[in-house]
Amino acid sequence: MLPTPAPASAPAVPTARPLVAEALAWADRLRTLSNGELAAEITRLSAPGATPLQQLTLALALLQLPSPAEGARAATLLQGVIANPSDDARPLHPLARQVAAQYAQQQRRLEEQLERQSLQLREAQRRIDQLTERLEALRAIERSMPSRAR
Description:
It is built from five helices and no strands.
């Protein structure tokens, strides 16, 4: 009897767990970096020809900054990772989608909050204008009253 041939093994593809674990560990480490260290990491990761993992970690670093421009840049990087069909990027797709969704949700909440505050500001300004008109009307009445003799 002939031995059965071993099944052909699949090509070596990076597994999701080490890549995602590395990205999550790096994201956790980001929270402890000072502003200078964070800027240095962003500069290092901004090199051309970055891997999908480097793009994802750069996006995570950019999201630590308060600048809306950097947030938009991070969103673009995340979309690039999501759209990348390579074997290196595929394991990172769920994490990139999750981070992009959370960022989009945060942006929507901030826009809603800004809209509410703008509405409150307009309402407060309207009330100030009304009260100013009333005050001016009272001053006009006071000026039109005959002066009392001393």
